[in-house]
Please model this.
Amino acid sequence: MSPTPSQSDDGEANVAFDDLYDLAGPGRYYAQLGRTGYRIPSVVADVVRERFTSVRDPGRPLHVLDLACGYGFNGALLLHGMPIDEVFGGDTPSSAGSELCDGGADIHLVGLDIACNAVRYAVQAGLVHEGFTDDLTAGPPGAACAVALSSIDLVIESGAIGQLYVPCFTAILDAADRPSFVYCPRIDVDQGPVDELWQRRGYECQTLRAAEPYRRPLDAEEAAMVTSAAMRLGRSVDESIVDGYITVDVRLARPAVR
Ligand SMILES: C[S@@+](CC[C@H](N)C(=O)[O-])C[C@H]1O[C@@H](n2cnc3c(N)ncnc32)[C@H](O)[C@@H]1O
Model:
């Protein structure tokens, strides 16, 4: 549920994020995100660079699925090395369009999001190589998406869509060949069902970074909702909101070594 619109520090109205996910371009979404100090895609990009791009097979790009890719925030950082503040400016990389993703890390990036306009933007701006709008919470992927998923090595997720992890991850596990997952559950979402999924599917899961700043709450009401939900899950007030930021854990799940 999105909080009621309120006034931010810079005087602009905070609007519910849900209204900003599926527009023709990312300007209003990034303006809103920028005001909240959103930084988590840069943490995800660091993890991918540190742990995955350096150890991939030579001669084959790392195939990465950006689950809930939105307008392609992760692609701007991973494929183009854009500074995060430029992303908030709403600019696309200079290599956008036909010169798709030239000069970036050796990654083949597949974007998936139910927001059709956002995915179209991400593809046209060169922020993903392929884009799909299949809703994995509603059933298995369609044929084209299933083909793309079949070669995925790594799934990344930076949008804190914690309630959707189990159906989405299950559909990906069914379509792909045991990829790794880097994902960012918010402190106020129960991760028990996801941990059970990893166990059932023979995966090991670890927290790479605990209580990372995700973004500032939109208002006091959202802050109170996060804190009370986190406390119901046995987390403390102190780790729910740190230095004014809602927190996420950055987690890595990968096939268990037998
Ligand atoms: C907080 S945004 C994050 C977008 C992007 N990862 C980023 O960091 O800017 C959450 C995204 O989840 C997407 N979403 C919601 N339900 C989804 C679903 N069932 N499958 C895929 N994406 C979904 C929304 O459309 C939205 O783009």
Remarks:
- The domain at 12-216+248-255 is CATH 3.40.50.150 (Rossmann fold).
